[in-house]
Amino acid sequence: MNVQSLLSTVDFAAKKHKNQRRKDVEGTPYINHPIGVAEILSREAGISELVVLQAALLHDTVEDTETTFEEIEQKFGKAVRSIVAEVTDDKSLPKKERKRLQVVNAPNKTREAKLVKLADKLYNLRDLNRCTPKGWGDQRVEEYFKWAHEVVVGLRGTNSILESKLDELFQARNLG
Ligand code: NDP
Ligand code: ZN
């Protein structure tokens, strides 16, 4: 049953991220982010494919917790594993290189991975507009928008609703 799968996925992600906080001053629980990304896909973009919503819920588990791809495949299947793998940065690379690869590789991702990446960027940019993370200045926020814009250029042609909402945020910062 879809509802059950979705709740098992939220439960798994919540346990994995239980000790993590977002970078905002209030230290919002990290799990708010993957739940919010899945919610954007469902409510705002009208996506109802279970594997895409599950991948959204799990998208930062391997990158930011001890979770392995094998564990995700075993619990949620090959399709979910594959989308999560596509949106996971290689943490063995230096940060600058990881950022560069997101820009370069964006156009080669599958539609499912592009959807998760678009919603992830939309959530993070809204979060930056809501409040500036601890230790960040205006310039770092500007740089983040600029980099996110470059990634989103490579994700275009996937979902017009998400893309126009992102475009509004970029235009407000004179990007694009
Ligand atoms: P980080 O990757 O360090 O931080 C952004 C990431 O943090 C997001 O992608 C998001 O990832 C996560 N995140 C957690 N909490 C929040 C929140 N409240 N709002 C938004 N995102 C949150 O930043 P970058 O390395 O991308 O830095 C941005 C730019 O600044 C880069 O272009 C870089 O060149 C520059 N930079 C500047 C530095 C400086 O000191 N001036 C130092 C380093 C970079 P997730 O979806 O995975 O949660
Ligand atoms: Zn994310």
Automatic annotation (TrEMBL):
Top EC class for this record: hydrolase
Domain HD: residue ranges: 30-125
Catalytic activity field: guanosine 3',5'-bis(diphosphate) + H2O = GDP + diphosphate + H(+)
SMART domains, sorted: HDc (SM00471)
Family of the protein in this entry: Belongs to the MESH1 family.
Function as written in the Swiss-Prot or TrEMBL entry: ppGpp hydrolyzing enzyme involved in starvation response.
Name of the protein in question: Guanosine-3',5'-bis(diphosphate) 3'-pyrophosphohydrolase MESH1
Organism: Clavelina lepadiformis
